[in-house]
Write a structure and sequence with these properties.
Elements lengths: L3 E5 L3 E2 L21 E2 L2 H17 L2 E8 L4 H8 L5 E6 L7 H17 L6 E5 L10 H9 L3 E5 L1 E5 L2 E8 L2 E8 L2 E5 L11 H8 L3 E4 L33 H11 L5
Parallel strand pairs: 1-4, 1-6, 4-5, 5-12, 6-11, 7-11
Antiparallel strand pairs: 2-3, 8-9, 9-10
Helix pairs in contact: 2-5, 3-4
Length: 258
Amino acid sequence: MMTGVLVCVKRVPDSSSEVVLTDDGQSVDGRFAGFTTSVHEECAVELAAQVTAADGGEATVLTLGDETAVEQLRASLAVGCTAATHVVADPQRFGPADVAREIAAVVRDHEAQGRAHDLILLGNDAADSGDFQVGIRLAYELGRPVVNGVMHVSVADGMVTARGTGPDGHETYRVPLPAVVTVLEGGVEPRYPTVPGRMRAKKVPIEERSPVAAPAGPSRVRLLLPPPAPSDVQILGKGADAAPAVVDLLEKLGVVSR
């Protein structure tokens, strides 16, 4: 049986640079860092590509975001997804419950068109706001089983096998399709777009949709950055006068011995 997979991604600020919050403290400011897809979601895209390549199914990538989020859709199309859906909206106005409702609406509409999404993959959490809720809320909305925080996914005989690491070691879950799974990084190596892949992605038509309802909005008060880690600096000296102190320090660290 061919598996229809829907993988959900979000345009988020690149966290490899210094993290800066917006003035209202509601999200990470990516104006100076650039934007990307989180590593969790890159792994979810890779798993979607692997599952559908194994049985000839279709991997559809979905995002809710403004017009710039097309970049993330094209990137997913370049590495194995074959269709894309864009819910065009300001993502800052949508809380986890709003996003789950919009994804569920897409799933139901596609099912009515004969495009069933047997498996829905999401990143374990939102890289910019830390929300861990969308996957669970989506599963509840659709009445599907959900497995969170896994690294490996495979499908066979109408079942999805999801593997991850828990507090007591390796964990394996087998649940019937249709199902929802959230993915952590580390289980697979995301592939990166090739030039032919990017060229092919540019030709794929993207389904554009409007939200089905007005958003209630996020309920968070604000995000806070942790205080910077304290650091102590000891000046050993200047010029040649510092040499004995450097030797003493290297001996203390076990780098050299007399």
